[in-house]
Design a protein that fits this description.
single chain; 80 residues; mainly alpha; globular
């Protein structure tokens, strides 16, 4: 899907629905994923488990639950 100028001026919450994240968003999401994986001993080679954790963290982010603790809780729920 090609983005128009109108698309680029959407509110941040609307942009998140389309899966567009800025560098700060990605850093916060990545930090939460790493925290969960470190806590649970999930190795980098365990791609399936890491993707499961990441998908729950991203879903939490998209739903507006973006506090670090909320993101980590979502990731832990995904790992269960």
């Amino acid at each position: 899907m090609r983005q128009t100028g109108k698309d680029m001026n959407m509110l941040p919450s609307k942009v998140a629905e389309y899966g567009v994240y800025d560098a700060g968003d990605i850093a916060e999401i990545s930090s939460a994923v790493e925290a969960v994986c470190d806590e649970l001993g999930i190795e980098r080679a365990d791609v399936v488990s890491r993707e499961r954790v990441a998908s729950h963290v991203i879903r939490s982010w998209a739903m507006g639950r973006r506090t670090p603790l909320g993101l980590v809780h979502a990731g832990l729920d995904g790992a269960a």
